[in-house]
Specification:
Blueprint (H helix, E strand, L loop, with lengths): L17 E14 L2 E8 L2 E8 L4 H8 L6 E10 L12 E12 L16 H6 L1 H4 L3 H23 L3 E2 L17 E3 L7 E3 L5 H9 L4 E9 L11 E10 L3 H20 L8 E3 H8 L13 E2 L1 H4 L5 H4 L3 E7 L7 H12 L9 E5 L5 E3 L7 H11 L6 E7 L1 H18 L10 E5 L4 E4 L4 E4 L14 H4 L8 E6 L2 E8 L4 H10 L4 H14 L7 E7 H8 L30 H6 L6
Parallel strand pairs: 3-5, 6-9, 11-17
Antiparallel strand pairs: 1-2, 1-4, 2-3, 4-5, 7-8, 9-10, 10-22, 12-13, 13-16, 14-15, 14-16, 17-20, 18-19, 20-21, 21-22
This protein binds aspartic acid.
The site of aspartic acid has 8 residues, from β21 and β22.
Function: Catalyzes the attachment of L-aspartate to tRNA(Asp) in a two-step reaction: L-aspartate is first activated by ATP to form Asp-AMP and then transferred to the acceptor end of tRNA(Asp).
Organism: Sphingobacterium tenebrionis
Pfam family, one: GAD
């Protein structure tokens, strides 16, 4: 028998028991005639003692143990003379009578403790050692708990988990596909799914009614920070539903998670239209844990001789709380920050709202006190606040001010990790103009239904058509998104036409879906949550990597197994990819 108990289990109530434990050597210390060893497994750490007076040979054996050796010990549970209140087993220790080495270990390349001396690269190369550390191990356990709660909640509502295929067909819509050559069909390729979208819709045609899947998805995109080429979605679809039904079910799921994981009970989630989110936060995934809402200033700033503002499509500002006391140097630093190429503002105007009710600004030459009072009103600034104003093309300037708002939110400690502020963003535009290809793309995907009342605009002003599409936003992150789908074949054909597909292209790429729609497709809709990010946010962290057992680095590499890698010429030949 390898163990009677785990290394995290024994307590003062177990005194006198003879026990066997197995685990890894975390640490050893010699004190006079005694040797102390900390043995660790997934469940915790227990202290072992070896006393020369009892058994000199055994103690010498213990002194030979290196870090991370795998051992099995048998002994008696005794009370510790110096107790350690920091660990649950801290009141006891094991007086060892037998020690067996199950496996030796090379000296690990970094310390396997909560605070490690190992950098990111080395930890990823030896990820199996990293996983022995509490922060990583606990993140994986936490992820399991979230996934389990998701399964519990959805199963209780009759959702059925179905696996959909990983080897599917490539389509040009959306992101770039990962491609898999087919050996049996030379010259032909599978693609790995970017999401199970069409399959889950076909499951609705199949009458399954409520589907979910915790599923890997693959997107061959240039990796931005904290993106993974393979990631996990909680993918869901329901039949005979309207947007309201879906929002309710998944608001319920999010509430269930927060309650069961953090004991937090939330009120009904606020809702905001896409337009409102863009106007008030410059962003379709606003972090509403803090204010600094946008105040549009065109009406109160474009009547003087300040050409920069007069020529701008949008003049917009935020009030930074209690920042009127910022020094010239601090404001210059913020100005430089917004002028960095990553943000791209051309300049920044400030107004200090002094405690005595007067204003002092960088544009005093152009604007008087009563003008600036109107700016304060529009941005909601109070005495003691600092108004920061950007101007330029509306979309760009909103993105710039949004970046500044988030940066200040971080700097001022307003983005508290233990506070959860969800919100639904609804009424997304159906289409998005793409400068590169000079055509409209589906903002969500081509299966999203437009709002019936906006349909006439499809021919006249397609950019104005709103979709039955929604995102769930949590603390400034999009954690889920979906839509009510088109379930009518003519409507789907019309949508493909608007997206620039010829009828042949539409048939070639999505014929299977439109064919299925000829056989009684029910009204349906759904959404998908990004599990990696959801888990990280619920865990109060910003980076998703530690919640993934074997993540890829920023170049999309797995540095542990060293992938991607070249393959042998014979393999290439067999796949019909050999160089002729
Ligand atoms: N398949 C969509 C996505 O991956 C989600 C959905 O519409 O259900 O974003």
């Amino acid at each position: 028998m390898h163990r009677t108990h785990t290394c995290g289990e024994l307590r003062i109530t177990d005194l006198g028991k003879t026990v066997t434990l197995s685990g890894w050597v975390q640490k050893s210390r010699d004190l006079g005639g005694m040797t102390f060893i900390d043995v660790r497994d997934r469940y915790g750490i227990t202290q072992l003692t070896f006393n020369s007076e009892d058994d000199e040979a055994l103690r010498s054996q213990a002194r030979e143990l290196g870090r991370e050796y795998v051992i099995k010990v048998t002994g008696t549970v005794i009370e510790r003379s110096s107790k350690n209140s920091k660990i649950p087993t801290g009141e006891i220790e094991i007086k060892v009578s037998n020690l067996e080495i199950l496996n030796e270990s090379k000296l690990p390349p970094f310390t396997i403790e909560d605070e490690t001396d190992g950098g990111e690269d080395i930890r990823m190369k030896y990820r199996y050692l990293d996983i022995r550390r509490n922060p990583v191990k606990n993140s994986l356990l936490f992820r399991h708990k979230v996934a389990q709660e998701v399964r519990n909640y959805l199963s209780s509502l009759d959702f059925c988990e179905v696996e959909t295929p990983y080897l599917i067909k490539s389509t040009p819509e959306g992101a770039r596909d990962f491609i898999v050559p087919s050996r049996m069909n030379p010259g032909q390729f599978y693609a790995l799914p970017q999401s199970p979208q069409t399959f889950k819709q076909l499951l609705m045609v199949g009458g399954l009614d409520k589907y979910f899947q915790i599923v890997k998805c693959f997107r061959d995109e240039d990796l931005r920070a904290d993106r993974q080429p393979e990631f996990t979605q909680i993918d869901c679809e329901m039949s005979f539903v309207e947007q309201e039904d879906i929002l309710n079910v998944f608001e319920g799921m999010t509430r269930h998670l927060l309650k069961n994981i953090h004991g937090i009970e939330l009120e009904q989630f606020p809702r905001m239209t896409f337009d409102e989110a863009m106007r008030t936060y410059g962003n379709d995934k606003p972090d509403i844990r803090f204010g600094m809402k946008f105040g549009e200033l065109n009406a109160v700033a474009q009547h003087k001789d300040f050409a920069i503002f007069n020529n701008a499509e949008l003049v917009v500002g935020i009030a930074v709380p209690e920042a009127a006391s910022y020094t010239r140097k601090q404001i210059d630093e913020l100005t430089d920050w917004v002028k960095r190429p990553q943000v791209g503002a051309s300049g920044m105007v400030y107004v200090k709202c002094e405690a005595d009710g007067t204003f002092k600004s960088s544009v005093d030459k152009f604007y008087d006190q009563s003008d600036l009072a109107k700016w304060a009103e529009a941005t909601g600034a109070k005495a003691g606040d600092l108004i920061l104003v950007l101007s330029g093309p509306a979309n760009k300037v909103r993105a710039q001010l949004s970046a500044l708002r988030m940066e200040l939110g971080n700097r001022l400690g307003l983005r508290k990790p233990d506070e959860f502020a969800p919100l639904w963003v609804i009424d997304f535009p159906l289409l998005e103009w793409d400068e590169d290809t000079e055509r409209y793309h589906a903002m969500h995907h081509p299966f999203t239904s437009p709002k019936v009342e906006d349909m006439p605009l499809l021919d006249t002003d397609p950019g104005k058509v709103r979709a039955n599409a929604y995102d769930l936003v949590l603390n400034g992150n999009e954690i889920g998104g979906g839509s009510i789908r088109i379930h009518d074949k003519d409507m789907q054909a019309l949508m493909f036409k608007h997206l620039g597909f010829t009828p042949e292209q539409a048939q070639d790429q999505f014929g299977f879906l439109m064919n299925a729609f000829q056989y009684g497709a029910p009204p349906h809709g759904g959404l998908a949550f990004g599990l990696d990010r959801l888990v990280a946010i619920l865990g109060g962290q910003e980076t998703i990597r530690d919640f993934i057992a074997f993540p890829k680095n920023n170049s999309g590499r797995d540095v542990m197994i060293d992938a991607p890698a070249t393959i042998a010429k014979e393999q290439l030949d067999e796949l019909g990819l050999g160089i002729k």
